[in-house]
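Write out structure tokens for histidine kinase.
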Amino acid sequence: MDYIHQKVRYTRNLDEAGITLHYPDPSPELKLNYSNINVNGDPFTILNIPIVLQDRSIVGLLQVGIYTGKEAEILHNLQWILVLSSISVLAIAFLLGLFVSKRALKPLHNVILASNRIESGDDLIKRIPRSKPNDEIGLLTDTLNSMLVRLQEAYLDLNEAYDAQRRFVGDASHELRTPLTTIRGNGDLLKKLWSTFTRNPHQPLEPHHLDLSLEAINDITAEAERMTRLITDLLTLARGDSGNVMVKKSVAIHPIVNEAVRKANLLPRTVEWRVEHIDELLPVHIQGDSDYLQQLLLILIENAFKYTSSGYVELSGLQKDGYAGIRISDTGIGMSSNELSQIFERFYRADISRGKTSGYGLGLSIAKWIIDEHAGYIEVLSRENEGTTFIVWLPTIGAI
């Protein structure tokens, strides 16, 4: 475009195509720029280049254009491709996300099922399946499986404790019923005898009536003493079951053994009573309760006297590896290897001794509790018809 002569010159291809371009009027604001135009419905991109003299006056305009229809079509197709691709990618991502999330949440579903089983309390044996990757779900599964193991163990322990408590109550009721029956029978006898005397106060009592009354009173007294001992033993075990903590302090073991020996001399027995090597315990001190330790020794000594009809019962002192030992041996009826594992159970009495010796089967249970409270242990050696040896080991001060 020549602004001075107001002439427009076109290239031959524009003339042949019959295309005319719009050109702007000259103005100081006319600068080099691009513009998009449509010519006969066809898109073109035009480059406008103003021709400027040194005095900054515009004398002409050069326009260079290019047909952009193919590029526009490519861009339009690309736009549709991108739209369709985006939709396809979103659909694929959605389906893949569903698959992955379902697969990833399957262990959590197993966890929920296991939790429901735990809540219903009907299945603590099964475990949650463990996935191979050691990821957070795997660690959670391991944690929950460990929790299930602990819950199962606690559940079994509670069942065992409940069964033991039920047996304990049943045995205690049985043991208490026998003396109560005796007391009631003797009471009825005394009531019958003395009601007859009350109705006929002037009739003299026959000698055998007095003898029967005295026997009944003696039976009542003996059974009351038995019940007192049983209740005392039950109270001791109940204190242990309730978590009662002994008040322990530093005590010398030798005076405790000496006192137990002195009290043992007063117990009924039919065999020789020996005391050997207790001076081995002279320098020994332990952390314990002297009353309970005396009770422990008297339980073992009294049992030895009870189950030994001939021979001897011997008490001796030992020391070994930071432990003080007290050995009580007898030449009594002994026990079989099958019975040794049960002698510390409550109300258990060896079959060979049932009906032959008095007792409730609580003494060794109390002894075992006292030993455990003192962080000690007990060894038992026995043979039928040859005798039994109990060795109580208690940690000395500095060895606990």
